[in-house]
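In this section we walk through a basic example: taking a raw amino acid sequence and producing a predicted 3D structure, encoded as discrete structure tokens. The instruction is simple. Fold the sequence below.
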Amino acid sequence: MNIMLFHSACGLRPAVRAAAERMRAAGHEVHVPDLYDGRTADTVDGGMAIRDEIGLDELLRRAVVAAAPHSETGLVYAGFSLGAFFAGSLALADVKARGLLLVHGTSDVPEDVSVDGLPTQLHVADPDMYEPDDWLNSWYLDMQRAGADVEVYRYRGAGHLYTDPELPDWDAEAAERTWQLALGFLDSLG
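The resulting token sequence is shown next.
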């Protein structure tokens, strides 16, 4: 699979690079753009400050530019938290998208979008202050309405960015389960 992996609001941290390497070791081609030009943060609040400084529109433009050269072959879009927003936004607009892997976050689902069976897998903490239950329920129903084939995995007691071992949210068991399921999902798309 050809995968476009977007980092979280904390930037292109070692955990994102490690995730890309895990996917490569499983035989996938993975592209990991640095939307923050080398800047990273150790907290979500610090990452949101970088996001706000650059601006969401500019970051989305950077995500589109990063994906464009690779999209002809049909990408699997993947992302962590804020990166899930970019992955979801691009996948829902790309008729050639092969799949959507979201970890720690979701994106808006336009009312007029149709994705005709787009394989989608979401992994999220339960509860998650950035992805509350009412939002997740609405997102799920909107994705179903759009025609996506959606799987949702929730991790009780995990923190928002539970796959990053250098952050306070780290949850080794939830992270390992996420990667087992995510790699199986990616393999199923091949």
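Looking at the output, two observations stand out. Helices lie at 14-25, 44-54, 56-67, 82-93, 133-146, 172-189. The longest strand covers residues 119-126. In the next section we compare this with other chains.
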